[in-house]
């Protein structure tokens, strides 16, 4: 079946611009996560949705970052006034629910480059 | 100090070799433990969960030492296709918030 889909796969933007990254989770998965992976590092937690609501946004680095999941399926990560330090691969993952027995399925990521 | 620490490697081994990776974690409240595999420019994929009693999946064996707060992964009879980065992952509770190490890179040569 279809896995987690992320678009675009690559995004190059200029410093100060606004970007939106989209995630389409596996159908029926109620839990959705955003992680960020910088070069040579492991993924770093950003935000978690259970259904439509953000259950935990403690990983968002600052108020330039915001994410929504209005219908409990597709999610959009929004970054305002991008900075060069925002350059990274943004990974989305989904799972059936948020328990230990429900493994995360990651998308292939959006590689964001801020010039 | 990082919450999850791994030797970045690379570990360069011949086909058929046995190789072991260790990982340490700083928070004694950690409850769930995993190894993920990540190929170059690909997404991380769950390799195996790690249980207190240790567990095995084919050529892969994972061990957990709670007293010393470290996790290990042993790969026997290495294959070329095992070349990847192996990420050690912990969770503070039984749910979602995974904390990843920076990964250990494995290169298996012919």
Break the fold down into its secondary structure elements and pairings.
The complex is a heterodimer of chains A (115) and B (110).
Chain A: E1 5-7, E2 10-13, E3 19-24, E4 31-37, E5 44-50, E6 53-56, E7 65-68, E8 75-79, E9 88-95, E10 105-106, E11 110-114
Parallel strand pairs in A: 2-11
Antiparallel strand pairs in A: 1-3, 3-8, 4-5, 4-9, 5-6, 7-8, 9-10, 9-11
Chain B: E1 4-6, E2 11-14, E3 19-25, E4 32-38, E5 44-50, E6 55-57, E7 60-65, E8 70-75, E9 84-91, E10 98-100, E11 104-109
Please provide a written account of the structure.
The complex is a heterodimer of chains A (115) and B (110). Chain A is mostly beta strands. Chain A is built from no helices and eleven strands. In chain A, strands 2, 4, 5, 6, 9, 10 and 11 form a seven-stranded mixed β-sheet that branches. In chain A, strands 1-3-8-7 form a four-stranded antiparallel β-sheet, with no helix packed on it. Chain B is mainly β. Chain B is built from no helices and eleven strands. Chain B has strands at 4-6, 11-14, 19-25, 32-38, 44-50, 55-57, 60-65, 70-75, 84-91, 98-100, 104-109. In chain B, the strands form two sheets. In chain B, strands 2, 4, 5, 9, 10 and 11 form a six-stranded mixed β-sheet that branches. Chain B has a five-stranded antiparallel β-sheet with strand order 1-3-8-7-6, with no helix packed on it. In chain B, strand 7 (60-65) and strand 8 (70-75) form a beta hairpin. Chain B is globular, with a radius of gyration of 13 Å. The chains are: A mainly beta (115), B mainly beta (110). The interface between A and B is medium-sized, with 23 and 21 residues.
């Amino acid at each position: 079946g279809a896995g987690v889909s992320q678009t675009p796969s690559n995004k190059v933007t200029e410093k100060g611009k606004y970007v939106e990254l989209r995630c389409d989770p596996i159908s029926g998965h109620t839990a959705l996560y955003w992680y960020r992976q910088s070069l040579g590092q492991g993924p770093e937690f950003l935000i978690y949705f259970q259904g439509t609501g953000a259950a935990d946004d403690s990983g968002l680095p600052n108020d330039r970052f915001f994410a929504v999941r209005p219908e409990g399926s597709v999610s959009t990560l929004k970054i305002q006034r991008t900075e060069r330090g925002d350059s990274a691969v943004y990974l989305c993952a989904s799972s059936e629910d948020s328990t230990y027995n429900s493994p995360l399925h990651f998308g292939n990521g959006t590689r964001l480059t801020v010039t | 100090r990082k919450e999850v620490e791994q030797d970045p490697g690379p570990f360069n081994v011949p086909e058929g070799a046995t190789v072991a990776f260790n990982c340490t974690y700083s928070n004694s409240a950690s409850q769930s433990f995993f190894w993920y595999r990540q190929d170059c420019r690909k997404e991380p994929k769950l390799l195996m969960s790690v249980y207190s009693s240790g567990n095995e999946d084919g050529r892969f064996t994972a061990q957990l030492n709670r007293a010393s707060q470290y996790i290990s992964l042993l790969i026997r009879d290495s294959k070329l296709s095992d070349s990847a980065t192996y990420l050690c992952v912990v969770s503070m509770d039984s749910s979602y918030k995974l904390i990843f190490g920076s990964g250990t890179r494995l290169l298996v040569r012919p």
